[in-house]
Amino acid sequence: MNKLLSLSFLLIFSVGVTLAQQPVLKPLSHEAMMSMKRVGAPKISPDGQWVIYSQQSVSYEAESSQSDLWLASADGLQAPRKITQTKSGEDNYFWHPSEKKIFFTAKREGDESAQLYTLDLSLGGDAQRLSNFSLGIGSPQINADGNKILFSAKVFPGVFTDSLNKKQAEEKKKLKYKARVYTSFPIRYFDTWLDEKQTHVFVLDLISQKVQNVFTGISLIQSKGFQLGSFSWAPDQQSVVFTATIDRHTTAYQNAISKIYQVSIHGGKEKLLVDDQGDYSSVEFSKDGKYALALGAPLNQTKVYQLNRLYRFSWPEMSYKTELVSTLDRPINQMEVSKAYILASIEDQGVDRLIRISLQDGSYQAVLGGKQGSFNQVSLSNQENVFAYQYNSMAIPAEVFVHHADKEVAISKANLALLKNYDVKDPEEFWTMSRGKKIRSFLMKPASFDPTKKYPLLVLMHGGPASSFKDIYGYRWNPHVIAGTEYVIVMTDYTGSVGYGEKFAQDIQFDPFKGPGQEILDAANDAIKRYSFIDGSRQAASGASYGGHLANWMQATTSHFKCLISHAGLVNSEAQWGTSDVIWGRELMNGGAPWVPTKTWKEQNPMRFAANFKTPILLTVGENDFRVPINNTLENWSILQRQKVPSKLIVFPEENHWVLMAENSRFHYQEIRNWLATYLK
Q1: How many Cβ atoms are within 10 Å of 111's Cβ, its own excluded?
Q2: How many CB atoms lie within 10 A of CB 671?
Q3: What is the C-alpha end-to-end distance of the chain, expressed in Å?
Q4: Exposed, middle or buried by CB within 10 Å (0-12, 13-18, 19+), for 510?
Q5: Of 219, 89, 210, 88, nearest to 149 (Cα)?
Q6: What are the two backbone dihedrals, phi and then psi, of residue 165, each rounded to the nearest 5 degrees?
Q7: Looking at the DSSP assignment, which residues form a beta bridge with residue 73?
Q8: Rounded distance, CA 274 to CA 161, Å?
Q9: CA distance 170 to 311
Q10: Angle of helix 514-530 relative to helix 546-557, nearest 10 degrees?
Q11: Which residue numbers delimit the Peptidase S9 prolyl oligopeptidase catalytic domain (predicted)?
């Protein structure tokens, strides 16, 4: 991070320094966390003069929560002002390519589904609705001339118009029976039962108001395994380039492969652009239309994790495929493309950094980033060296900034005044040698920290496993709220975490719990040795999703902890394989199907060690969770009750894999802290 940027963030967001000078600072409560404004991704105008972003205020009364769009000058000289004030929020907002107009989707009064709206900022007034499409407007994109919009919508198979889809939906409502019927996998995803509908791409002509289904003539939609991935305007503005698979129905026994296609906006047969055994997730184009940039991975049905690679093709021939940044070995979170370079956010050892990638030779250099905080959600203007982005850290909720050639300008500053009242610290980083490799951890000190005191230790374990503990602000497992003034928290990126190279993420294969669990224990012991203020006799561990799996593994294999907390955690790997919404990756992880007696299935399934269960444990789960279905938590509960282990079960009937509703979240945090207080006195 350059000196100018460091100074900018020091002045604006070095809350720890500012707070340390104030006499009375409060620990971050759940109420304070929820009162923070949630600032969305910025979109900078093409001329680089203006920025729009969403800002949400969350209330414990759901009907009182509000989300609106805000407008600010990119130079920071004009304070942000709210430009929408309706009950429903706005989404998918973007600029007209040459006019001072913005577009967004919203479900406003009278709308059955999300529709497209526009707001002319040069005229003021209210936003005008541009569509009346019963299927709703999803993922809209405007063309270079500013007169057509691409969007996605779900349709019944073989039905291509809005009116016929309405008729089909009405006929379905008339059926006297209620049943879901399936003949292939998958049948549900995350928290939703899947139906027969397909996602198609449409084009809306802003002048004539006509809507055309672009997929009317493509053969791909005839496959029961069809699923659309991403889509983009081609440089000719007369066609769409998209990724799609026809293999979704095979995902019970292999990975689905997505290829790159092109189709005219007037319909017709698709053209296969790339068929090289690669699996592609997205395609974008350079501003001059010379290159197509695709994210994808080489076809591999044997690895539990693969890093997405960045490829450049000459357009329109789609020739001269070249891998850019081949030595990067880090995930690309998000990117935007100009004429000469790509600006990308990458995940690197616990932070999101920004890099600039040359379109010509694939070389890259750091733009923004350091040891603290994360940079993401970049938005490029047409002006050289002028772009918008988000910055956040564990201590600072996301805020909007604009980068100029010689300075960083804080735009939103939505939470700056409120943060000054709370003792929120940046995490400390430390590395531990475990199993012959270096393992990174964050350590978080509690509010009102006193180095002469002894604090209990809470070990937080992240989900995934292909994720990491990043220096970003979170609402679901906020370490400041959990820690309060009582606990030191250690967060470890065990083998399988991303941001440390593809191999590090892949090495969890065939060793899902034992190796990562040992690394977590080693990091906790290392922290106790390093930091004299930790009381090693009072330790607890907690996690959600894969972190919940690991909490149950700790239950099965160690009496190290005074208590445990497991949210959405599996206790029986075999049951998880058969009931989760995704199964093939679990087979890859364990070296075969559950009926194949692999070493991993036999030796790393917590339930097989139920005789060892003895540590008091809190179980929480969302009833609508299809990723780690409730059966695993109920099975765990049965084991605990059978083994007479002190335990508590909390089921959230309206929640899915996460606990998101404000009052449910508050209760969840209270129960976590109450459980810790009971056993870590």
Answers
A1: 19
A2: 15
A3: 42
A4: middle
A5: 210
A6: -70, -40
A7: 50
A8: 29
A9: 45
A10: 80
A11: 475-681
Mean pLDDT computed over 310-338: 96
Helix (H) or strand (E) holding 189: strand 188-189
pTM of the predicted model as reported, rounded to 2 decimal places: 0.95
CA 327 to chain centre: 25
The tens digit of pLDDT for each residue in 353-409 reads 999 999 999 999 999 887 789 999 999 999 989 999 999 999 999 999 999 998 999
In the chain, what's the furthest Cα-to-Cα distance?
Answer: 74
User: Which tens digit of pLDDT belongs to each residue from 226-274?
Assistant: 999 999 999 999 999 999 999 999 999 999 999 999 999 999 999 999 9
Cβ partners under 8 Å of residue 238, min gap 6: 264, 265, 266
CB 656 within 8 A of CB 191: yes
Does the structure show a pLDDT above 90 at 214?
Answer: yes
Q: Whole-number mean pLDDT of the chain?
A: 94
Total residues belonging to the chain: 681
664/656 Cα distance (integer angstroms): 12
Q: Are the beta carbons of 492 and 469 closer than 8 angstroms? A: yes
Residue type, 503: K
What counts of helices (H) and strands (E) characterise the chain?
14, 39
Q: Are the C-beta atoms of residues 61 and 69 closer than 8 Å to each other?
A: no
DSSP bridge pairs for 200: 153
Per the listing, tokens 């006297």 go with 176
> CA-CA distance, 70 to 503, in Å (whole number)?
42
> What sign results for the dihedral spanned by CA atoms 613, 565, 579, 278?
negative
Tokens of 566: 């497991």
**Tens-place pLDDT, residues 610-628:** 999 999 999 999 999 999 9
If 0-12 CB within 10 Å is exposed, 13-18 middle and 19+ buried, where does residue 24 land? exposed
Distance in angstroms (rounded) separating the CA atoms of residues 246 and 530: 53
Between CA 133 and CA 198 the distance in angstroms is 16
Specify whether the CB–CB gap between 305 and 505 falls below 8 A: yes
Label residue 343 exposed, middle or buried (CB < 10 Å: 0-12, 13-18, 19+).
buried
For 130-141, b where at least 16 C-beta lie within 10 A, e where not — what string? bbebebbbbbbb
* Helix or strand (DSSP H, E) at 402: strand 396-404
Distance CA 112, CA 106 (A): 10
Burial code of 629-659, b = ≥16 C-beta within 10 A, e = fewer? bbbbbebbbebbeeeebebbebebeebbbbb
For residue 620, which amino acid is it? T
Distance of alpha carbon 461 from alpha carbon 673, whole angstroms = 16
- Reference 70, options 43, 99, 32; nearest CA is 43
CA 431-437-441 angle, to 5 degrees, is: 25
CA distance 212 to 236: 18
Residues ≥6 apart with Cβ < 8 Å to 99 = 120, 122, 146
CA distances from 179 to 167, 185, 294, 465 (A): 20, 17, 40, 35
Between 87 and 591, whose confidence is greater? 591
Q: How far is CA 584 from CA 250, 257, 515, 627, in A?
A: 10, 13, 22, 13
Provide the pLDDT for residue 23.
54
Nearest to 544 by CA among 609, 615, 627: 627
Helix %, strand %, coil % for the chain, to 5? 20, 35, 45
Strand, coil or helix: what is 150? strand
**Residue 22, token pair as written in the block:** 């104030």
